[in-house]
Amino acid sequence: DDLLETGHFGEQVDFREDDLLGHFPDECAPFRGVFGCDMRNDFHGSLIRASLRTAERARKCSFMPHAFDLGRAHRIFSEFEETLKNGEVIIFLTCVACVELWRWDHGAEEPIVIARARLGVSSGHTL
After folding, report:
1. For the chain: N or C, fewer Cβ within 10 A?
2. What is the pLDDT of residues 72-90, one digit of tens each?
3. Is 71 helix (H, G, I), strand (E, B) or coil?
4. Could you tell me which residue, 59 or 50, shows the higher pLDDT?
């Protein structure tokens, strides 16, 4: 995806140190309870949320003024799924033992795993 190459795709924050939940409870709501994340204590993993936005909404957004529609999200995650399945991602992640891609469909009670790569399985290394 061309926008990923700009380095302006997202933001990494320490939600505990910055008290993100206290300052932005609405923005934190989608992460709370996902895989045990409570937005107050250490979470051993990474959660990424793709926030969809229309072109009109993107023009008003100071954080990321680019449209991110469902089609684009599907393309990006499909490409990532393929790199997981063929082991291209895990080879370059020296401190990561497992990478998983999950999807939580609207109305579903829980997410489903789409793809998974583990160190040792995809690259031949053992922990």
Report:
1. C
2. 888 888 888 888 888 777 6
3. helix
4. 59
